[in-house]
Amino acid sequence: MTHTSSPKPPEVRDSQVVADIQSVDFAYNNSPKVLEDVSLRILQGQYLAVLGPNGGGKTTLIKILLGLLKPQQGQVSVFGQTPAQARPRIGYLPQYAENRDDFPVSVLDTVLMGVRTKKRWGMRYSAPEREKALQSLEEVGLSGYADRLLGHLSGGERQRVFIARALAADPELLILDEPTSNIDPQAKFCFYEFLAELKASVSIIVVSHDLSITTAHIDSIACVNKMLLYNARPEVTQEMFDLLYGMHERHTCPMAGFGPSHPGFLNRLQPRS
Amino acid sequence: MLDALSYPFMQNALLAGLFASIACGIIGSLIVVNRMVFLAGGVAHMAYGGVGLAFYAGWPVLPSTIGFTLLASLGLAGLTLNRRSRTDTVIGVFWAAGMALGILLLDLAPGYNVDLMSYLFGSILTVPLRDVIWMAGIVLVLLLVIGLYYRDLKAMSFDPEFARTRGVPVTFLHFLLVALLGVSVVMVIQVVGLILVIALLTIPSYLAQRKAQSLGRMMIAAAGWAAVFCLFGLMAAYYFDLTSGASIIAVGTVCFFLVLVWDKCVGALRSYPSA
Prior knowledge:
The complex is a heterodimer of chains A (273) and B (275). Chain A is built from 8 helices and 9 strands. Chain A has helices at 58-65, 83-86, 107-112, 127-139, 155-167, 185-198, 238-245, 265-268; strands at 17-26, 35-43, 47-51, 73-78, 90-93, 173-177, 203-208, 220-225, 227-231.
């Protein structure tokens, strides 16, 4: 179900469409559907936040965009190509994974993994590849860090390295999955500021379960919780809140069961008159 | 030690230890950074099925064990490709099934097999020259394959999903890695036996990972540690008349704990305010 609360521009030229998802259904083998009848269109230069609860299908949606997962129903095109064909033009920042923290790799080598290249064989990287990686590091303000071990950096610095890795591909679309999940609130703010500066040159999709992203300079919001709601303005609508948090009645709220003297315990938390 | 070196069996043992160390350094590092140690254990025990098959059918042991383990580990690679599914359970089943198959085939094999224990605990002091030559060949193939695929293997180990978006053939490399693991494990079984093979894959890699600047240097350092363990383990086995495989692992384990304690002490000293 796609809902547009403010009208889209009437004519959208194909050349402006970066990604087009049409009535997509997805389920992991024989499990209930994670995504149902999801449609979304991303235009050139757009800075879209994808919000949703954990397990709501956000990461699934972007893995479909990257061609890492194939939907059972519906069409997906990126730059007018299949997602797998379009991959070289997409910069990707995956979710934080702990096992990367102690991997023996330098900052420069990490960024080199993102450089667009035809070269596959061998152990060495070519001079143009290195140059590109160093340039990406400069873009994220980590010029002096090339030879440092990735594991010795702070969480925020490491995320910037991963951004540099995504930028090293000269992407036309940047997809960031929970980019601020492992960095402190102060660094989070700086990180969003930094993304806003990139905005002019590429289309960006930022996935988050954290509503504070709406304070960043995003220009549109999609909420995903099995279904998808879209707003072409950077505001979370009442409808979206309902989709994100559900329209719970008290007796369906699982917390009520934890009270010492159910069901009156939640009432006692309210101020007495 | 010098007089010991004049014996051909000792020379073979040292060469076998050297080749096994190189294989352990390369494959062990990849296994450790890919969090595939349990899978390596499964492959090692499945290899016993190959040993059983070789005795049952009367085939040469090393080549047929390599062939069997290669096929079995490719099967295991297929089943564990999707890491969401119950990978550890599947490996557990293969682990036990391979072992049981080996024992049953040895029961059915004609004649009485005396050197059964050598496959469980290794027999580096009785490795024939023919097997040493096999090992040299395997190491050569290993070095060649790693040299060719180093960049992609590194990218896959670091972040398979991202690597896939950059065109790295992740599925193929997963099968390749498990296949290389299978071949290497059979080789290392000669040295320390299938029960102790995990130690030689993990301890050197752990020690090497602490300060490594890159995956390649981690491999080299791990091979170095493994070679040290083999050398001192062999010396201990020779002079004190101990089981060679267990001596090698004992040296490794002592080093492991010494380094662990050392790192803890250094860490504690660093965090102590100097002023």
